[in-house]
Amino acid sequence: MDKRKYFILLVPAIIIFVALLFLLPEENKIYSLFVPIVFWIVYYGLKGKTKLDQKNR
What we know:
The protein is an all-alpha fold. The protein has one domain (3-55). 75% of the residues lie in helices and 0% in strands. The chain is built from two helices and no strands. It has helices at 3-23, 34-55. Helix 1 (3-23) packs antiparallel against helix 2. The longest helix has 22 residues, at 34-55.
């Protein structure tokens, strides 16, 4: 696991998630759950791209 990429993506994701929990109305708080999902998609996408780039060298 690339800890640098993980923490670079994790900090803004947590901030956005908490902000959405407090700022969204009660009936829309479920949308804040998209933040962790997008975080994992982006993280594993970058991880896979890095692995593919290293393999093609």
